[in-house]
Design brief:
Rossmann fold, Nucleotidyltransferase, domain 5, 5 domains, six-stranded mixed β-sheet, 23% strand, elongated
């Protein structure tokens, strides 16, 4: 069974000349993002650096592609990864000025339907070349959402028979075929059957199953997938007729349900009792079956399990953000964070809601995030750098630990790693963290200065490389100076120091100095300070600056 086409296609452009057409297409698909070539498209929603590689990545992920460029460029870019045409995503080429819409790949995943929709938005005619659609005005093998083709290979033979001159009749409700140019005949041997029930294989019957069934889990103590398959067999209904799985809210965190939904490829919804749906009078110890009179929309049944994902943006440059964090941002309904970080994560797509708060309101932000996620929303909490390094991951876990609210604990919580400021600065300088190191925050907002000073002394005595976060601010002007005094008690004045300011952002600046030459005036809140160990060394780069690294080996004493 081919998977359904992606509901949020990627609109890929090469230059600013295609942006106006891309915006017109985006009005038709508000969830879609515009992917622009870095350096040639100003502030795209998604930036890429290599067109061919980016297209291949989208294709491999099953994302529908609307490429605003010549068809030949798209074909050459994807040629090396083309595979099974039964499962490939829709791929279209659209002229930059919107004058042509050409479906290229994904005939069985709705590419022609996309082509018609895009062409209508651009007020042009699509270049359809599929023989069946040209003859009959529809693709029988690609029914609309809510209906699933039972057997693709049998369907191909069925369409071949029609093209050879056979007639057909329709058994069941298929309103999308009302305007098609099908060769209908009351006495036809070929039948399009629209039914949720299983029937014997028949070359002359094209079976399309409306997704009218809901399977409701009553417990999770058993093999859920096997139990459901048994129940479907006993009821005589087709597996493809399932629209979704559902369960009471009390089972929201059950891993067995998540796994069953994943194995079956079905959405999972939570509702305490599907009262509006009549039972199919078929049940077992694990499941109840309910059947509607028409295809179900899972989005209108109960709620999904909410997700709360804590991400780090990395140092600032989008190319240093991990792909999983980028995907979480793209899929989010709500984004929470310090306003500066939300701006860095943007631009937001239509429908996404930003909840900006002061950088000192971390626990309140975390609680708000759980409140939203508990309602079934997809929530992302944004940090810079890595969310687990002096950032929001700890605040989110602290809020959850302190809460006795069951709906908060049922939320699917994920924490995704990011590139921390220490790692980004170290990479720019060379490898100052090449041996043992520690990270210390000089902020005494949440811990006493006496604790900080004690840790500084221990780290200095252990000859660890140290990375200082929150080194100085208007409200904390003296701490860095005192920290340097503590280090001077045991560290030589020649100890190397790396200062990284706004690393990964347009105004980034890197400086290598020594502990004896460093003064607090050289540092601000946006500076990451790395203090080397006794083994850290530097040598000249070809451009006149210096490489700094700490050797992996340590001299014997």
């Amino acid at each position: 069974m081919p998977a359904p086409a992606c509901t949020a296609p990627a609109i890929v452009i090469l230059g600013a000349s295609a942006l106006a057409t891309a915006r017109r297409i985006q009005q038709r698909y508000p969830e879609a993002q515009i992917h622009g070539l870095q350096g040639r498209v100003e502030a795209p929603e998604r930036a890429y650096t290599q067109f061919g590689e980016h297209l291949r990545q989208l294709y491999a992920s099953g994302t529908a592609i609307i490429a605003l460029c010549a068809a030949g460029i798209v074909i050459r870019s994807l040629a090396s990864v083309l595979g099974d045409k039964d499962s490939e995503p829709p791929v279209l080429a659209v002229a930059e000025d919107g004058s042509a819409v050409v479906p290229l790949l994904g005939g069985l995943r709705g590419v022609n339907r996309l082509a018609h929709e895009i062409a209508a938005a651009l007020e042009v005619q699509p270049a359809i070349t599929t023989s069946g659609e040209l003859r009959f005005g529809t693709c029988l093998l690609n029914p609309p959402p809510g209906y699933v083709l039972a057997d693709l290979e049998q369907g191909k033979r069925f369409v071949s028979d029609l093209l050879a001159g056979e007639t057909l009749r329709i058994d069941g409700q298929a309103p999308w075929l009302d305007s098609a140019r099908l060769p209908l005949a009351a006495d036809a041997r070929h039948v399009v059957s629209i039914s949720p029930y299983r029937e014997a294989d028949d070359r002359r019957t094209l079976r399309i199953h409306p997704q009218q069934l809901l399977a409701y889990a009553t417990q999770v103590d058993g093999d859920l997938v096997a139990g459901l398959q048994t129940l479907l067999g006993e009821a005589g209904v087709a597996r493809q007729s399932l629209a979704c799985l559902a369960a009471p809210h009390a089972l929201m965190a059950a891993a067995e349900l998540q796994q069953a939904a994943s194995v079956l490829g079905l959405p999972l919804r939570f509702v305490d009792q599907p009262q509006a749906l009549p039972p199919l009078h078929s049940r077992n110890a694990l499941w109840q079956l309910h059947m509607a009179s028409a295809p179900l929309d899972p989005a209108r049944i109960g709620q999904p399990r909410g997700t709360l994902t804590v991400i780090g943006l990395g140092p600032g440059d989008p190319q240093f953000m991990v792909p999983a964090a980028r995907q979480a941002l793209d899929e989010a309904q709500d984004l929470l964070g310090y306003e500066t970080y939300i701006r860095m994560a943007g631009p937001l797509r239509p429908g996404q809601v930003s909840h900006c708060s002061d950088n000192r309101e971390e626990l309140q932000r975390a609680r708000h995030a759980f409140e939203l996620a508990a309602r079934g929303r997809r929530v992302v909490v944004i940090s810079s750098g890595d969310p687990g390094v002096f950032a929001m991951a700890a605040a989110v876990l602290e809020a959850l630990h302190a809460s006795s609210e069951p709906s908060w604990h049922a939320v699917e919580l994920k924490i995704l790693p990011g590139v921390s400021a220490a790692l980004a600065t170290a990479a720019k300088a060379g490898a100052p963290l090449g041996h043992d190191f520690c990270m210390l925050s000089l902020s005494d907002n949440l811990k006493p200065w006496a604790v900080i000073e004690q840790r500084l002394r221990h780290a200095a005595a252990a000859d660890l490389v140290m990375a200082f976060y929150n080194p100085i601010s208007k409200s904390r002007p003296w701490q860095l100076g005192r920290a340097l005094e503590v280090l001077a008690e045991t560290r030589a004045a020649e100890t190397l120091v790396v200062l990284g300011r706004d690393i990964g952002r347009p105004a980034e600046a890197l400086k290598v100095t020594t502990l004896g030459a460093l003064t607090p005036e050289q540092v601000d809140m946006r500076t990451l300070v790395i203090v080397g160990s006794s083994q850290s060394v530097r040598f000249a780069r070809a451009d006149g600056s210096a490489w700094v690294y700490t050797p992996r080996s340590y001299p014997a004493h």
